[in-house]
Amino acid sequence: MSAGRHALLVLTHPRPDSLTAQLAHRVGERLAADGLTVDLLDLHAEGFDPRMIPADEPDWADRDKPYSAEVRAHARRLDRADVIVVVFPVWWFGLPAILKGWIDRVWNYGFAYGRRVPRLRDKQMLWLGLVSYTRERWAELGWDEPVARVLREGISEFCGITDVSVHFIHDSLSAGERALTSADLALQAIK
């Protein structure tokens, strides 16, 4: 990692004492120690509303549609970031509703996609998901690649981000210190 870069660290868990929150704070400390400035976006603490509203619904005829003030503020935070790290629990084999709503509302047509030259193209991204299953059971059930593919291709690459890593922390209900070590390893993907 290099000094002078800026990271947007997105936390999506309702409890500030959760393992997800602990990992996000650990990631923030590691990023800062490596010389990045860190903007912690705690979607729950900041009261982000994940529900789509008419003001933020895409207008396929107008990619320059002015979205709501809340969405424009979040888009500015994304714009400033060189690195985006999202720390989240995997619930129902996907993203928590608040994170899915953030993607739906903020990563919108005209901002995150729909332009010849994607605005997010030069960013680096790390998805750090906490899974309650062991690594073996997660793979046995066949969820490892479908969930990673949605994050990598369906969201990041669709929006022009090609430097993407997806890392799952398994057995999160009893991982303890192993989860922190696993998060440290995942951060090695950030250059």
UniProtKB/TrEMBL annotation:
One of its GO terms (cellular component) is cytosol. Residues 6-183 form the Flavodoxin-like fold domain. Coiled coil: none annotated. InterPro entries: Flavodoxin_fold, Flavoprotein-like_sf, NAD(P)H_dehydrogenase_qn. It comes from the Bacteria. One of its GO terms (molecular function) is NAD(P)H dehydrogenase (quinone) activity. Keywords: Oxidoreductase. Pfam families: Flavodoxin_2. Belongs to the NAD(P)H dehydrogenase (quinone) family. This is NAD(P)H oxidoreductase.
